[in-house]
Design goal:
This protein is an alpha+beta fold. It has helices spanning 2-5, 16-22, 43-49, 56-62, 77-98, 104-115, 117-126, 140-153, 166-182, 187-197, 211-222, 232-235, 256-277, and strands at residues 7-10, 226-231, 237-242, 245-251. Strands 1-2-3-4 form a four-stranded antiparallel β-sheet. This is RNase III domain-containing protein. It comes from Lactuca virosa.
């Protein structure tokens, strides 16, 4: 029977981190030819961010993607590397000082929510930074459009339910790295700009659990053991069952992790209906 060939495993045993690393980045699936129209003037970036660069070449480098073939400027990859470290330091410092009683694990989770790919991509999109990017990636505009549609469905951080283009997050990090260098490595001056860019920041009050963690926690409280049917290679779907009853389904063909997150979210919404029907004992 075809169903017997599908992999059925405990939801906890789906190695989400490893899967996310192994799946190909849909953004880098193809390279593009560049658009004939040049990007707008980078002076507009300075106006939007409220920061005027002393070294304009740093600003240009921050907006030059690795796919852009030109002799006049390096790509933003080194600035992105630096900006990632600076950003993590700045947000960690903010949380350390703002929440003196918060445990290290909670501080880590709060920082991660504020600096993950989705949070940074949302900030970059808010300021339309992608319009200034020099690149040769024809798929980028379509990916950004899909991300914008996802944001309409999830106005605040979705925690893994939509697929943010990594290049948007990279772009914001490279800009942060450029500002850091341009300010002679001043953390305080860099933070003045970064804090504006990242608003609204996620706080302990609006920090949500990851869909899989939230679903597993609810299952533990109810005393039920979910199983996931892995159909992703065939259909892009993950199905979640409790006692052979389908309670959640998620689909996303490009990244398995997002399909899992959507399935867990769907299952969580249906979990309490299952509990009522089952008499409240989960067994």
């Amino acid at each position: 029977m075809e169903e017997d060939q599908d992999i059925v495993v405990s939801l906890k045993n789906l190695d989400l981190e490893e899967q996310a690393q192994k799946e190909p980045d849909s953004e880098s699936a193809k390279e593009s030819e560049s658009s004939d129209a040049p990007p707008p003037s980078l002076a507009e970036v300075e106006e939007m961010t409220g920061y005027s660069f002393r070294n304009k070449e740093l600003l240009k480098e921050a907006f030059t993607h690795g796919s852009y073939k030109a002799d006049d400027c390096k790509s933003y990859e080194r600035l992105e590397y630096l900006g990632d470290s600076v950003l993590n330091h700045l947000v960690a410092k903010l949380h350390y000082l703002s929440y003196p009683d918060m445990a290290p694990g909670e501080l880590t989770r709060l920082r991660a929510a504020n600096v993950d790919t989705e949070a940074l991509a949302r900030a970059a999109l808010k300021y339309n930074l992608h319009k200034f990017l020099r690149h040769q990636k024809p798929l980028l505009q379509r990916q950004i459009q899909e991300f914008m549609e996802g944001i309409e469905q999830y106005p605040s951080h979705s925690h893994g339910m939509i697929d943010p283009p990594k290049v948007l997050a990279d772009l914001l990090e490279s800009l942060i790295g450029a500002i850091f260098i341009d300010t002679d490595s001043s953390m305080d001056s860099t933070w003045e700009v970064v804090e504006r860019l990242l608003q609204p920041l996620i706080t302990p009050e609006n920090l949500k659990l990851h869909p899989v963690a939230k679903f597993n926690e609810a299952c533990q409280k109810m005393g039920v053991k979910p199983q996931a049917k892995d159909l992703w290679n065939k259909t892009g779907e993950i199905e979640i069952y409790i006692e052979n009853e389908l309670i959640g389904r998620g689909k996303y063909k490009l990244k398995k992790m997002i399909a899992v997150n959507r399935a867990a979210d769907d299952a969580y919404k249906n979990l309490f209906l299952f509990e009522k029907k089952d008499g409240g004992n989960g067994g």
